[in-house]
Design a protein that fits this description.
mainly alpha, cell membrane, 2 domains, transmembrane transporter activity, Growth Hormone, Chain: A, globular, membrane, transmembrane
């Protein structure tokens, strides 16, 4: 039976469960990204060996969303969503326990064990996501959905911010910053107890979620569920504004994926910051996105979505350029203090760009294809995120060979985004107000 109140044990349990899930994803992923970046001190001491490996981590985490997203959506309709959520949380405990072993075993097997755990973590999140968003309409009355989605979005962003920010202090507390990556990784097995504890708490809270009816128990698995369904391919071919919006969304998530890696590299390698301050810089992007999302939602009621989008477009370009500038003989133009507001404003600009496109992609298709449009959008976005990992590794190689500053990645991001800012025009004849967090990844990519 659907509830007409959010003050129920079931909804509160759901909210706590998804908060802990997003927190753990971002804590563990940021720990690995910090390990993957050589610090300025290690480079100066000649202890840093090999390239920046953040791109590999990004690819490994994103691949399950690309290849298993369709199957996860099928499962969410075929089986009980509460069962999928509880099962996913139990799997998270196992994955975090494997993470503890992988950290301890780094001196013996290298980072391969951690990459395997990161892949399993992405796979667990892939199956958790459709159940998470799909259960709300089955748990609550329709009039409660906007408030419920707002609470989910708010707690997700809080979890992203806290989880990302906590990774740096945890690593600094357990590992001497001058210790190179392999030896540092082994010491982090103790920190894995935090991730295991969070996974256990999330599993316990998931048990309070009420059981809901199965959406379609007779649903049969079809090959098209694993790719772009034929009706969606036909729609995208016939509706060019929709296709261009999807491509613009992909470019945005390509840039978003590069941003996290670029900030970690800027903080640790170029500015010589601690892991704590580097993680703080990354988390401030999400703060900016959260604030920008609220402002963008308000502005779309006052002006056209196209105007909001173009403010965001040029804002992304401007702040990427500012973050890219390194003055010969003086170092990074903004430094750590100046990068803080720049990163928050970059996040806000990103929200100004992303929200109108997301609303357009949700509202433009006919009602019978809206759900599949969201699935295609998510799949396309994660293809772009995986692409960002590959592109970052190429950029890292070029920057290292040319001896350019690490902030050069931001210059490349600005160059990639300028054509979108110049050419793309959103068809805002279908302006709408966003009603939920569909399409928002649970990690700071």
């Amino acid at each position: 039976m659907k509830s007409d109140s959010l003050a129920t044990r079931s909804f509160v349990g759901f909210l706590v469960t998804q908060f802990f899930g997003a927190f753990n994803d971002n804590l563990f992923k940021q720990l690995l990204l910090l390990l993957a970046v050589p610090s300025a001190a290690a480079i100066a001491a000649g202890q840093a060996k090999g390239p920046d490996l953040q791109g590999i981590a990004t690819v490994v985490f994103g691949l399950p969303f690309v290849f298993a997203g369709g199957l996860a959506g099928f499962w969410a309709d075929k089986f009980n969503k509460r069962t999928i959520i509880v099962g996913s949380k139990m799997a998270e405990i196992v994955v975090m326990a494997l993470g503890m072993i992988a950290f301890w075993a780094v001196p013996y097997v290298g980072f391969y064990g951690l990459w395997a755990v990161l892949f399993l973590m992405g796979l667990q999140s892939t199956f958790f996501g459709p159940g998470k968003y799909g259960i709300l309409p089955e748990m609550l009355e329709k009039r409660q959905l906007p408030r419920a989605n707002g609470l989910v979005l708010m707690t997700t962003f809080v979890a992203i911010i806290i989880g990302t920010a906590a990774a740096g202090p945890l690593k600094d507390a357990l590992v001497d910053p001058d210790i190179p990556g392999v030896r540092a990784a082994q010491k982090l097995w103790i920190g894995s107890f935090v991730c295991i504890g969070i996974a256990i708490l999330g599993t316990i809270s998931s048990l309070f979620i009420a059981r809901v009816p199965v959406a379609d128990p007779d649903l049969k698995l079809k090959a098209e569920y694993l790719t772009v369904p034929k009706p969606m391919r036909r729609l995208l071919v016939e509706d060019k504004p929709l296709l261009w919006a999807l491509l613009a969304s992909c470019v945005f998530w390509l840039i978003a994926g590069l941003t996290i890696q670029a900030v970690n590299s800027l903080g640790k390698t170029q500015l010589g910051l601690s892991d704590t301050n580097t993680s703080l810089m990354v988390s401030l992007i999400s703060v900016g996105i959260a604030i920008g999302g609220v402002v963008a939602g308000w502005l779309t009621r006052k002006t056209s979505a196209r105007t909001v989008l173009h403010i965001g477009c040029w804002g992304v370009v401007l702040f990427c350029v500012l973050l890219a500038i390194t003055v010969p003989g003086r170092g990074h133009l903004l430094g750590f203090p100046g990068s803080i507001p720049a990163l928050m404003l970059l996040g806000a600009s990103a929200a100004f760009f992303a929200i109108p496109i997301q609303v357009f992609l949700q509202s433009r298709p006919p009602d019978e294809l809206k759900g599949r449009m969201i699935a295609v959008m998510n799949q396309a976005n994660f293809i772009a995120i995986v692409g960002s990992g590959i592109l970052y590794q190429i950029m890292d190689l070029v920057i290292s060979q040319a001896a350019w500053p690490r902030s050069s990645v931001f210059a490349a991001m600005a160059v990639l985004f300028v054509p979108v800012a110049i050419v793309y025009r959103l068809d805002d004849s279908d302006d709408a107000v966003p009603s939920g967090p569909d399409g928002i990844p649970e990690t700071a990519v």
